[in-house]
Amino acid sequence: MSALPNREEKITLDTFLRGLWEENPVFVMLLGLCPVLAVTNSTMNAIAMGLATTFVLVASSTLVSLLRRVIPKQVRIATYIIIIATFVTIVDYVIQAISLDLYNALGAFIQLIVANCVILGRAEAYASKQRVGASVVNALGMGAGFTVALLCLGTVRELLGAGTILGFQIFSANFEPWVVMILPPGGFFVLGAWLLLFEYLKQRKERKLLDSEGAIS
Questions:
Q1: Shortest CA distance to 4 belongs to which of 90, 114, 129?
Q2: Is pLDDT above 60 for 2?
Q3: Distances from the Cα of 79 to the Cαs of 76, 117, 132, 144, 148, in angstroms?
Q4: CB-CB contact of 75 with 81 (8 Å)
Q5: Position 8 in a domain
Q6: How far apart are CA 72 and CA 80, in angstroms?
Q7: Pfam families, alphabetically (predicted)?
Q8: Which 8-state DSSP code applies to residue 20?
Q9: 20 to 30 Å CA-CA from 121: which of 58, 137, 163, 185?
């Protein structure tokens, strides 16, 4: 994991891509696992939770960055939580207005976005130290990484647990669904498999880097 910047940094492609791979909040940093395991029994739930979290992450990071020189250090955490809770309330009402079924499916995990370590961590470690542009780009990258992680779990669990993706039948009528995949244990099984894959890819990249350095020396 790359070190968090102690000074204002320039906006680069890495500012966005960092959250997708190098600092992926789920597969690398292991943050926000509660909603990852709880709501990813379908692809639609994963998309909705990912977009909701990304909105709150971007909006709160923007406001924290704008107010970073105004917020007293003694009450900064409480202020960040109030900011995050404000945008979570907006998301909560919007989802409830758009689809009551989706709102019921996500349950209390919409309100629990307030306690998501990904959002509070970005506010404290990044947005409070960076300009608005860099904070927004970084938040978009982290939100995209979180959404991709949710989709990785939600798609696999729905496909194996119901034979569908977004409600569309993928397998034939002869397919016997793996019901365990849409149950809570299925979330742990699929998450474990994705973590193994990410760790394998990380180690392979490190081995290639070491081999290339050895060849040069």
A1: 129
A2: no
A3: 5, 15, 17, 25, 29
A4: no
A5: no
A6: 11
A7: Rnf-Nqr
A8: T
A9: 185
43: in domain: yes
Give the C-alpha separation, 164 to 127, whole Å. 39
Residues 53-82: tens digit of each pLDDT: 999 999 999 999 999 999 998 999 999 999
- pTM metric for this prediction: 0.87
Q: How many domains does the chain fold into?
A: 1
Q: Which helix (H) or strand (E) holds 210?
A: helix 184-216
Closest-CA residue to 128 (of 30, 29, 6): 6
Does residue 4 lie in a domain region? no
Range of the domain at 173: 14-216
Beta bridge partners of 98: none
Domain assignment present for residue 124? The answer is: yes
For 165-201, write each residue's pLDDT tens digit.
988 888 888 888 898 999 988 999 999 999 999 889 8
CB-CB neighbours of 29 under 10 Å: 17
Q: Which residues contact 65 (CB under 8 A, 6 or more apart)?
A: 127, 128, 130, 131, 132, 135, 136
